[in-house]
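Wed. Picked up where I left off yesterday with Arrestin-like N-terminal domain-containing protein. The coffee machine is broken again, so keeping this brief.
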Amino acid sequence: MSTTLNSDLTSTLPPYSPSRLAPSYCAEPAHDEHLLELGPQSKPRLQRSGNLIKRSGSGDTLILSGQDPDTEAPTYGRSAVIAGFVGIEERESVGQVSLTISGKIELTAADSSIHQTILEDTQVLWSANDNPSENRDMPAQCPGHLTFTASIPVYFQHADDHERYPLPPTFLTSYPISGGLSAKISYTISATIVRARRRGGLRLSSVLGPKITNVIIPFNYVPRSYPSRPIPLTSEYNFLSEIKAMPDEWHQLCVVVNPRPGVRLPAVDLHLFTPISGIFALGTPIPIRIQLIGSVDSLREFIPDNSGFNTTNLPRSRIEVSLVRQLRLQVHGSTESARSTIGRAFLLSVPPPAPPPPPPSPSLPDFSRDPLHPLPSHEFQSQHDLTNTFFLDFAAQLHIDTTLGTTSSFNAAIVQVQDFIVIDVLEPAGPKSVFAHTREARRVRLVTDEYPGS
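Structure written out below (tokens, as returned):
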């Protein structure tokens, strides 16, 4: 019966063919494909196989695994795991061995200072109380090697406002000329060995206290961070076209540059274009675009002296773009700040995107070799009379001096590091200044790594 049933089922099964092979894949798009989105991915980290060893005077050692043995301060990133072991000498008198990861902030402003602990994580690796001996005359003996793993937390809780803040990176700076402001953020990992004092077989700890040995290794904490989007591709010679092609990729800061009192010249509209994300890697130049819009007479005051158009030999107003770092400290309820320039841009005049204007007329100067060019009415809306409105373009790369700015921007409650792209219209020296000093800034954030694939 069952044989007949199985036979009937087998005869009614449909025919099968082998499955098709899965298509081949590659990391880069083919000729008929394009990339829609790329998410940040961590760069492969160099795996070190050595051990960093720190030895105390009594012979105890603290050993960190996977570190360069020649470095004085190893580097760990966000959520890193510190692994290693503690080597113990004179084990018979050891009562306890513990490991501590600590971090602290030290601030100085004028005659005040503050020290605040932001990380204090201790674990007991071995204790005689937890390892009783079966023989009362022979106390438990500490092992010669104690392994450990310890994780660095991502956040810390501030003692005053009880808010959580990202654990700040290792940091050290000072401003002697700004009231003696200084800030230091440091981290250490330490092994503490507690021993009973003995003399002639007698315990002296009850009288003199235990003997404590600390083996300390400082380490650098560098949490890695990335921009939220890549820097747009740019060309120094296609100013308007690249802004029009990618308007969502640029942040526009508008500034009105007014003439000095008594100067009968129209104001100039200044437009500063920077990448929209506002998040930039420390080692990556930031593209800058500047456009000045105004009358011919006003714009001539901004033509660089080396352009050959300074016919009056009068000093010109200068435009400078810089990256300014601001340090803000909260010391005993008082806010102190200091600034330093960590990057500068060298502005280059961008030639006109179109052929030269018509031949000169009695009412207008010759523009055939002039960096000034008429403003197309469809490009920007301006309050100026478009019949007499021209524009002057500049392009630059804002380079960050990594010897001055080695740390990303951060906020650790009582100490903040903020970064700004600052544009200055500077008055020339002497009584011939035409336009007043003007300054505007855009706050940005510096991070450790560039956008993946950049």
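Quick read: Residues 69 and 204 are 38 Å apart (CA to CA).
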